[in-house]
Amino acid sequence: MKRICFLLLTIILFFSCQTEIEVNIPTYYNKLVVEGYIENDQYPMVSLYRSVPYFSTMSLDYLLDHVVIRDAKVFVTSSKGQTQELYFISSPEAPLFFAYTTNRFMSGSFRGELNTSYTLRIEWGEKIYTSETSILETFDLDSVGFVPRFGRTEIDSVANLRIQMTDDGQSDNYYQFKVKIHCEQFQDRLWITTLPAVFDNSPFRGQTFNYEIVRGAPSTIFMPEMTERELRRYLRGNYRMGDTVYLKYARLDHGAYRFWHSANGELTFGQNPFMSPTPIISNITSSTGEKCLGVWCGLAAKEMMLILDTATTKTSGSAFRF
């Protein structure tokens, strides 16, 4: 009887202590969001968006109609004195299919070069936004290949991807890996960041180490049309028999690293870091001194193709672009 009375008293106290909490949602501001890249041997690409309220309902049509910015002026200047205006055009490599970029048919077009700095200038809404990034020097991998999953002695239908690399130990280095998977169920159109999104060499400066390439959570924007089985394949972090895997490995400068490091938590769960209440460190500055969102990122990158075959693991022997 005492136990029953004690239980009833506990339940009464629990419900009597509940209070309503009012949450003040921050005021929504129509800010500029920047997602810009320049990579060795590639044309610069800058996507510009309007920030939206955190609880907005997202869809591809809504993003294209109300979020993508089409009326800005965008310029990139290299430390070698070249200046190129970027134009708003369609591109399959842009996150939302349109971006400010250039191509070989436009006069003055240039591609990114190693050991070169690039200044970004954006003119939009009577404000000027600037940033600077550098394409540093590329690095090589000692080895790369598929390995059995944890606890397995051999590769069955699923495998992990492992690289071995040696840090040069000469300076603070910042690394980023990305992957694309092409298989029967889907083909990644965009590069998917791995987990973590970036890392530095502080734990292994000047040492040789192994690193597991775990595919991060891809964007949820393109998933509504997928079946349940396709979704399971799309959201996986490992690799399956028949997969063709494209691997990009790059060195970043410190400014780009700080952005990706601060955004890592959101990217881990497939969220958009530009829509998160978590503080994200940007390397973009505004002429008015207001807080900016986004990144201008230089990548000193190489690419490689790997195939997980039913009979043997096949790896391309050199850097591969497609």
Tally of helical runs: 4
How much of the sequence lies in strands comes to: 35-45%
Uncertain segments are 2-16, 312-322
How does the overall form come out from the CA principal axes? globular
What is the helix content? 10-25%
Report the biggest beta sheet as strand number plus sense, adding barrel if it closes. 14 strands, mixed
What is the CA-based Rg, rounded? 23 Å
Question: Which helices and strands, and how do they pair?
Answer:
Elements: H1 2-16, E1 32-39, E2 45-50, H2 60-67, E3 73-78, E4 83-90, E5 98-101, E6 116-124, E7 127-135, E8 143-147, E9 158-166, E10 174-182, E11 192-193, E12 199-200, E13 208-212, H3 228-234, E14 239-240, E15 244-252, H4 254-268, E16 285-286, E17 293-308, E18 313-315
Parallel strand pairs: 1-17
Antiparallel strand pairs: 1-2, 2-5, 3-4, 3-6, 4-5, 6-7, 7-16, 8-9, 9-13, 9-14, 10-11, 10-12, 10-15, 15-17, 17-18
What does the model show?
With 322 residues, this protein is mainly beta. It has helices spanning 2-16, 60-67, 228-234, 254-268, and strands at residues 32-39, 45-50, 73-78, 83-90, 98-101, 116-124, 127-135, 143-147, 158-166, 174-182, 192-193, 199-200, 208-212, 239-240, 244-252, 285-286, 293-308, 313-315. The strands form two sheets. Strands 1, 2, 3, 4, 5, 6, 7, 10, 11, 12, 15, 16, 17 and 18 form a 14-stranded mixed beta sheet that branches. A hairpin with a 4-residue loop joins strand 17 and strand 18. Residues 2-16 and 312-322 have low confidence and may be disordered.
